[in-house]
Automatic annotation (TrEMBL):
This is Carbohydrate ABC transporter membrane protein 1, CUT1 family. One of its GO terms (biological process) is transmembrane transport. Pfam families: BPD_transp_1. The chain crosses the membrane at residues 71-92, 104-124, 162-181, 202-223, 260-283.
Amino acid sequence: MKRLSWLHAWLMLLPALAMLMAFTHIPALTTIWHSLFYPARGSEPEEFAGLDNYRMMLDDDVFWQALNNNLWYALVTVPASMVLALAMALWVNGKIRGRSALRLAYFTPTMLPMIAVANIWLFFYSPEIGLFNKVLGWFGVAGINWLGDTDWALPSLMLMTIWKEAGFFMIFYLAALQALDRDIYDAAALEGASRWYRFRRLTLPLLMPTTLFVLVNAVLNAFKLVDHLFILTKGGPNNASNLLLYYIYENAFSFFDANYAATLTVVLLAMLILLALLQFGVLERRIHYR
C-alpha cells in the first residue's frame, strides 16, 4: 500500500518535474557544457577549451563594466522600488477619497508593455523635445542629454525601473496589509503605542514574508533587464549603461559567440544563486509566519 502511495505521488509530480527539467535544469547544464568549448568554425566541431573562456572573461573590461553597472543598478533600484511600494501601499490602504482611482494609477505602469514603457520614457529623455528638459527649461536650467551622457545614462534607467516596478510591488504589500489582523493594532492603540511604534514593531515584522517575496523578485528583475536597454541605450554610451544580461545578448546574437555568452550566463546564474541563498539565509530568521 505504501509503495502504491509512493508511486501515485511521483506520478502526480511527474508533469511538473518534467517541465522543471526541460526548461530549467537541462538548459542550465547545457549552458555549463557549452561554456567549456571554443566556438565552432564552419563545419568543424567545437573544440574543448577548458576554463579558457572564463580566463578570457576575467580579462574582459566590458564584462567588469557591465557587472559594476548591474550591481549599482540593483543596489539603487531594489531598495528604492520596495520602499516606494510600501509607502504607496500604506497610503492607498488608508481611508482616503478616490482610493480606488489612486490604486489604479499606481498600478497602471505595471500593465503597460515593457517596449511601450521604454518608448514613453524615450520621449521623456529626448534632448530636444523631451518632457524633462522642457521642465528644466522653465527654471532656466540647461537641458541634459539623459541617455547620451555617460554620467546620466545608468541613473536614467534606474529612474524608469523604479517608476515601473514600484506599482507592481505595491499590490503585494497592499494585499498583505489588508490581511493583517486589526485586533492587534486595536490592542496596541489601547496600550498607548504611537503610530510609528506600531509600524515598526507590528507592521514591518508581519510584512516580512511579503518583503522576502518582493525582494527576491526585485533582485531577479534587476539582473534580467534587456528590452528597455535595447530601446533606450543599447548599453551605451561607451558601455555606461550596459548590464550583464544585455551583454550576454550582445555576445550571443550580435557577436555570434554563443560559447562566451554561455560562460557569462554561468557566472550570472552563480551570482543569482548566491544572492538567493543570502536572502533566504538572512531574512528567513526574521520572518514570522502565521
